Amino acid sequence: xxVEWTDKLSIGIGIIDDQHKKLVxxxxxxxxxxxxxxxxxxxxxxxxxxxxxxxxxxxxxLIMLRNGYSEFKRHREEHNWFxxxxxxxxxxxxxxxxxxxxxxxxxxxxxxxxxxxxQVVDKRLAEVIR
Length: 130
What we know:
The chain is an all-alpha fold and 130 residues long.
């Protein structure tokens, strides 16, 4: 399930939109790696997502704190859920690998979460900050 970057995903904060584009690119890289059955690329993409989401979420959270965003804790909990989910996927990869069914589930989780989080939660943040 590839994600196409469109204006619907733009929240209007340049640095955050640029980071979201990179996340979308990596979700799509994961989908491509799964389609090619490239285990090394799947592992690399998952590792990248762990590091990059931590960095990106940190930037978002700093913006929230600097602006006194009242929904900070709930927003941060969503970030933490996603980081934990990616960590669990990475652990599964290292421990036993992922079945085709599980890879499909991970694709759907990644794409669905990213799109929903940006379009709903991050857009709400942008509206409050503006």
